[in-house]
Amino acid sequence: MDLHYLTVILLGIVEGLTEFLPVSSTGHLILASELLGYDASTWAMFNVIIQLGAILAVVVLYWRTFWAVGMGLLRREPTSWRFLRNLVVAFIPAAVIGLALHKYIEELLGAPKVVAWALIVGGVAILAIERMVKENRFHGIADIPFVRVVGIGFIQCLAMIPGVSRSGATIMGALTLGVERRTAAEFSFFLAIPTMLGATTLELLKNGDKLTSATVGWSSIALGFIVAFIVAMLVIKWFVGLVSRHGFTPFAWYRIIAGITALAWLSMR
């Protein structure tokens, strides 16, 4: 197989594996670009767009939830409206701050050492939060109070620093604000849909004209999308079961080890 398509498949696997785990998919894609030695800027839009494959996995796996919410909205059920309100409210901070800081965020995407340090700091933060959080009062997305949803939305914005992890920031923020583990994970999955759709739309509006002439064209994006979708389908089910039984500590130690390894490797280059 052509080396180019092997790279496409590898990045699709990395995206599908890491998008919903608290380990930073963007950070891993940046480190993968350094490890493989290709031009990260050439693949930047590819890395953003294939996230939609992982997002589609959420829609497929939780279609019954979305169907129930949709039917509830038509019947004006309060629970369904609170579910929708919470997703929209939590998304707004990322939309506003992301637009305002887009240029600065793009600059950070070319800084692998930032990713390595963010992995380590994030791992330590997860260990600390796991020790501190004992009580979970909210066991459904619709049950999370408005003020706490706003807090989760702002905490998600920390993921604009590559290596922090959008899912990790959202989940840990939700836990500190009293949300039960499984609900925190699922809220992170659902919140990824508007967040990633917004990021992809912005990327296409800014750089969509480059796709037809770039090394990474639509065929590569389609393949990466499919690979990310299939892998994410498997990961989501496994992840929910794991955190329900063992919490997030394994991912904290993984982040710390990966960050230290990346720093050591980057220092020797």
UniProtKB/TrEMBL annotation:
Presence of keyword Hydrolase: yes
Domain of life per record: Bacteria
Reaction(s) catalysed by this chain's protein: di-trans,octa-cis-undecaprenyl diphosphate + H2O = di-trans,octa-cis-undecaprenyl phosphate + phosphate + H(+)
Coiled coil: none
InterPro entries linked to this entry: UppP (IPR003824)
GO cellular component: plasma membrane
Biological process terms in GO annotation: cell wall organization; peptidoglycan biosynthetic process; regulation of cell shape; response to antibiotic
Record-given protein name: Undecaprenyl-diphosphatase
Organism: Sphingobium chungbukense
